[in-house]
Amino acid sequence: MSGGIEKGRLEDQAAEKFSKGFLCSQAVFSTLAPLYGIDEKVALKIATGFGGGMARMQEVCGAVTGAFMVIGAVHGNVDASEKPSVGRTYREVRKFAERFREQHGTIICRELLGGVDLNTEEGHKEFLEK
Questions:
Q1: pLDDT for position 5
Q2: pLDDT, tens digit, for every residue of 10-28?
Q3: Cβ proximity of 29 and 47 under 8 Å
Q4: Which of 41, 43, 84, 91 is deepest in the core (most CB within 10 A)?
Q5: Inter-residue long-range contacts of 71-75, CB under 8 Å, 24+ positions, other chains counted
Q6: pTM value?
Q7: In contact, 108 and 60? CB cutoff 8 Å
Q8: Which of 62, 56, 71 is nearest to 116 (CA)?
Q9: Angstrom distance (rounded) from CA 21 to CA 1
Q10: Which residues pair with 60 in a beta bridge?
């Protein structure tokens, strides 16, 4: 990992941010973004709309989209003609998604939460309790 930071330490940092009330997407992206020259506060703002499976739509998990953003920061293109960068980014995103599915069974927020509806008061309370 870049800068000599251990993977477990990064996971702990992201988990700590989440426990303090940041969204999954914010916790993941803002923890890793500084390693790639992205300001932590900017990362927190960018990742906000991806929480709750994209604005609480409970689609792709915010932690997963946070990781996708980091992959883009590492491998993405800055010139429209850099097609190999796009292909590499897509491959890395797919590899990450597959590993996440292998570990957790899905990348879909509502499935990860066991069907809890984050958009209801009861569902949000159940989520916070777990």
A1: 54
A2: 999 999 999 999 999 999 9
A3: yes
A4: 43
A5: 71/96, 73/33, 73/36, 73/38, 74/36
A6: 0.88
A7: yes
A8: 56
A9: 26
A10: 108
Amino acid at 54: M
d(CA 73, CA 91): 14
How far from 28 is each of 23, 25, 77, 125, CA to CA, in Å? Answer: 9, 5, 21, 23
34 in Cβ contact with 41 (< 8 Å): no
Distant-in-sequence, close-in-space partners of 119: CB < 8 Å, separation ≥ 6? 56, 58
User: Using CB atoms within 10 A of its CB, is residue 1 exposed (0-12), middle (13-18) or buried (19+)?
Assistant: exposed
Q: Which amino acid is at 77?
A: N
Distance in angstroms (rounded) separating the CA atoms of residues 115 and 25: 19
CA angle 129, 51, 38 (to 5 degrees): 125
Number of H helices, E strands in the chain: 8, 0
Provide the token pair at 62: 């915010």
